[in-house]
Amino acid sequence: MKLILAIINNDDTAKASAELNHAGFFVTKLSTTGGFLMVGNTTLLIGTDDNGVDAVKEILHATCARRKHVSSTVNSLGRGLGNNGLPDEVEVGGATVFVLNVEDMTKL
Ligand code: 2BA
Description:
It is a single chain. The protein is 19% helix and 34% strand. By secondary structure, it is an alpha+beta fold. It has a four-stranded antiparallel sheet, covered by helices on one side. A two-stranded antiparallel sheet has the order 4-5. Helix 1 runs antiparallel to helix 2. It is elongated.
């Protein structure tokens, strides 16, 4: 069994979750924040049999778009009003995916 952690853009969360559920996968959504841009993103937890990993990746690839993130003072509130050396434009996404081995999963 595997646990997939997928960090995706907030705007892709609804479609990715819906497609994953539709394909029979269970999904938990965490609200997270990227440490570089300090902007909210979403981390999905997906527990699956080993043979489901490729299907999950395909769904994430199809539903999570790469996009440019343009810095603004609004996005920099956590760092004060300045841009603090961040690039004006950064390419983000579609999905950053980690696949972990799971020793055991039980629903009690
Ligand atoms: P952030 O950390 O806010 O990073 C947003 C984007 O900024 C990244 O997009 C990348 O293009 C750039 N970036 C991040 N760290 C950088 C650095 N040290 N130097 C130069 N550019 C940097 P993505 O790579 O698509 O990552 C999107 C989000 O996925 C990240 O948001 C972070 O929350 C997560 N992430 C990506 N790789 C990760 C990793 N190896 N470990 C943990 N989280 C990761």
